[in-house]
Amino acid sequence: MKGPGAALVALVAWTVAAQAADCPRKGALGTSRVLSVDAANTPRVGLKSFPQTLPLRDHEVVLTFDDGPWPPTTQRVLTALAHECVRATFFLVGKPASEHPGLVRRIAAEGHTIGHHTWLHRSLTRIPPDETTEEIDHGIAAVEMALHGVASGTPTTPFFRFPGFESTPATLELLQSRGIAVFGADLWAGDWKPMTPKQELKVLIDRLNRARKGIILLHDPKAQTAAMLPHFLRYLRDNQYRVVHLVPAASGLDTDHTP
C-alpha cells in the first residue's frame, strides 16, 4: 500500500487483533475486541496530553485505572469488571504493588493489562532530573517483581502513564528510546476530587456522550469509583458502547480479524 493510506497506518501503528472471547454470562457488556499497540512506532497517545489517540470507532472505549493496587477498592473494581466480562488496563504504582503482590497477580490472572505509574507517584516535573529515571525504573522493577518474581527494569508490558500527566521532553524521550508507550487519556470523571458515586457517574456519562469514544481514566483506589463502576458498566451496555482491550504488540495479536 502506498500514499496517504500507508502513511496513516504507519503513524497510528496500532493493529486490530482477534475478537475477544465470548462472555459466559448472557447479557453482559463483554469486551468487544483487542487492540495491539506497537510502542516503538506509536510512542504516546491521549488527546488531553498529545495530538493523537487510539484509532477507536464511534462508541468504543478503553478503560484504564491508575494508582493501585489498593485491596479494599481494587478488589471491588475487579469484581465489577469480571461481572460484565470486561478487560481494562491498570497503571500500577510500584510501592503498593510491592506490598500487595498477590493482588497484582490477580489483576493479571483475570486478563487485564498491567502498565506502570512510577514508584511513589511523585510528579516527575518537580523532582531533580537525576531522580526521575530512578523513580520510573524502581516502579517498573517493583511491578515486575510482584508479577514474575524478578525485579527487571524491562517491563513485560511497555505501557506507562505519568502521575498527573506531568512529563518533560527528557522523560518522554527516555521512554520512547526504550520502546515504552506513554498513555494520556481522552476523558475522565475527575475522581481525584471529593464527590459521590452518583455525581461521578453523571460527570463521566456527560463527558463520554460529548466525546462518543476514547481512553477513559479512572482510579481504582477511590471508593466512589469502585461504587460507581457497576452502574457505569451497565450504562455502557445499555447504550451500545463497546469496550476495547489493549495489549502490547509483542503479545503476537497482530492480525486484523474484526469486521
Look up the CATH topology: TIM Barrel
Poorly predicted parts? 1-19, 251-259
What is the makeup of the main sheet? 8 strands, mixed
The rough form would be described as globular
* Rg calculated over all Cα atoms: 17 Å
Number of helices: 8
Percent of residues in beta strands: 15-25%
The tally of structural domains comes to: 1
Tell me the series of helices and strands, N- to C-terminal: HEEEEHEHHEHEHEEHEHE
Structure characterization notes:
- The protein has 259 residues and is of the alpha/beta class.
- It has one domain: TIM Barrel, CATH 3.20.20.
- It contains 8 helices and 11 strands.
- It has helices at 4-12, 71-83, 94-99, 101-109, 129-148, 169-177, 197-211, 223-238; strands spanning 14-19, 33-37, 44-45, 60-66, 89-92, 113-116, 159-160, 181-183, 187-188, 214-219, 242-248.
- The strands form 2 sheets. Strands 1, 2, 4, 5, 6, 9, 10 and 11 form an 8-stranded mixed beta sheet that branches. Strands 3-8-7 form a 3-stranded parallel beta sheet.
- Strand 7 (159-160), helix 6 and strand 8 form a beta-alpha-beta unit.
- It starts with a helix and ends in an 11-residue tail after the last strand.
- The model is unreliable at 1-19 and 251-259 (pLDDT under 50).
